[in-house]
Write a structure and sequence with these properties.
429 residues; alpha/beta; 6-stranded parallel β-sheet; 14 strands; binds uridine-5'-diphosphate-xylopyranose
């Protein structure tokens, strides 16, 4: 099948490249000419393991093309996928201006029956709204369907190629048949439902996972008081298949481009409709508390003040294997540390552009040892696997004091104990 993907961010680029990899002809369109030029040369705009290879294969096969010209790309395309950003507006609502512009341009360029696929995470009712926008631009016959994405950054290619399910929000038999053909090579349940349910499924999935993390962080706060170990409790409950072991890692809470935005969007939806959503609200609160608790425990180790103390933070990406720092818990943590007067230094193996991007003054070091020099405390904020090989003895030798805060419960406690740190773990006394 021939399809056009509008937007070459995480979702659009991964979806386009993977669909070309399974045999479709995909034209990826973006308004950013520089990004398109770089993609043509094989330069990835994001750090995503495995993506470069899939893009390279697609380009070499001639099935994956990049352009800024949507009208030309639409020639002979049966499917137009909208995969543009839907960032949070300052009031917490979803900014739909990119979706609207994509829908309008697709409508203008449509020459024959087209299935328009909403891939971006969008508010419930968007498929109907997108249809009305397109209607105002074209006389052609078309259908709008919602096929939400469940990709995790850092595992996006694998998640696309081996999905647990594909949700198809479609009320048109013709469009459903096209979706079945588009996703024929993917061996997983394909769940067909109305578009509104599909749109809500995406928010519900992310909010449920965020809630699970919030729950284990809540249990962690009890463990800290009771002398229990949250990792053991997580293991103990996670083996029950009704609960499941995934997303029960206590730490600094969730960040990234999806969970914060989607949980907030659901909260706003409830507020707007007057539907109480106490669990969603508690998830947001718990996430803020997770960071605050780590700082409070650190402060208590320094007799109530970290003013002027040098704090070295390891990791700034919102999770390992990505260069994405959007709503990173590490950043939220650093902001609290700065507010308390600490001298904050940070190291991340990949997300090195962080301070420039966020306009937030912290010193960026070239290695963990470099930032640990003269530090009173080191905090592990993002669990990059490279930190497994840290020479903890060397870290401690160059520090001015001896506090190691393991905000992701990453290190082997025995190893840390042997080096002689004052060691804090989440959900451990
Ligand atoms: C998430 C969803 O997993 C994905 O299905 C959806 O399409 C987009 O949002 P992503 O944002 O890439 O994916 O990250 P994910 O791996 O889910 O982690 C989200 C956040 O939760 C990270 O900040 C991570 O550190 C945190 N997390 C995750 C925990 O604190 N504990 C856990 O047990 C799991």
């Amino acid at each position: 099948m021939k399809l056009v993907v509008v937007g070459t961010g995480y979702v659009g680029l991964v979806s386009g490249a993977c669909l070309a990899d399974v045999g479709h002809t995909v034209i990826c369109v973006d308004v950013d000419a520089l990004k398109i030029e770089k993609l043509k040369q094989g330069v990835m705009p994001i750090y995503e393991p495995g993506l470069e290879d899939v893009v390279k294969r697609g380009v070499e096969s001639g099935r994956l093309l990049f352009t800024t010209n949507l009208a030309e790309a639409m020639e002979g395309a049966r499917i137009a996928m909208i995969a543009v950003g839907t960032p949070s507006s300052p009031d917490g609502s979803v900014n739909m201006s990119y979706v609207e512009s994509a829908a309008r341009n697709i409508g203008k360029a449509m020459k024959s029956y087209t299935v328009v696929v909403d891939k971006s995470t969008v508010p419930v009712g968007t498929a109907e709204w997108v249809a009305s926008v397109i209607h105002s631009e074209t006389e052609q016959e078309f259908d709008v369907v919602s096929v939400p994405e469940f990709l995790r950054e850092g595992h996006a290619v694998q998640d696309f190629m081996q999905p647990h399910r594909i949700v198809i929000g479609s009320e048109s038999e013709k469009a459903t048949a096209d979706m079945m053909e588009l996703f024929a090579s993917f061996d997983c349940p394909k769940v067909v439902m109305d578009a509104r349910s599909a749109e809500l499924t995406k928010y519900a999935a992310n909010s449920f996972l965020a809630m699970k993390i919030g729950f284990i962080n809540e249990i962690a706060s009890l463990c800290e008081r009771l002398g229990a170990n949250v990792d053991e409790v997580a293991k103990g409950i996670g083996l029950d298949p009704r609960i499941g072991a995934a997303f029960l890692k206590a730490g600094l809470g969730w960040g990234g481009s999806c969970f914060p935005k989607d949980v907030r969007a659901l909260k706003n939806l409830g507020d707007g409709l007057g539907v109480p959503l106490p669990i969603i609200n508690a998830s947001l609160d718990m996430n803020t508390m997770a960071r605050q608790r780590v700082v409070d425990r650190l402060v208590s180790l320094f007799d109530g003040s970290i003013e002027g103390k040098k704090i070295a933070v390891l990791g700034v990406a919102f999770k390992p294997n990505t260069d994405d720092t959007r709503e990173s818990a590490a950043i939220a943590l650093m902001q609290i540390l700065k507010e308390k007067g600490a001298d904050v230094h940070v190291y991340d193996p990949i997300a090195v552009f962080y301070p420039a991007l966020h306009g937030f003054e912290v010193a960026v070091g070239e290695s963990p040892y470099h930032i640990a020099q003269g530090a009173h405390a080191v905090i592990l904020a993002t669990e990059w696997s490279m930190f497994t090989d840290l020479d903890l003895k060397r870290i401690k030798q160059v520090m001015a004091d001896d506090v190691l805060v393991d905000a992701r419960n990453f290190f082997e406690p025995q190893r840390v104990k042997e080096v002689g740190f004052r060691y804090l773990r989440v959900g451990n006394k």
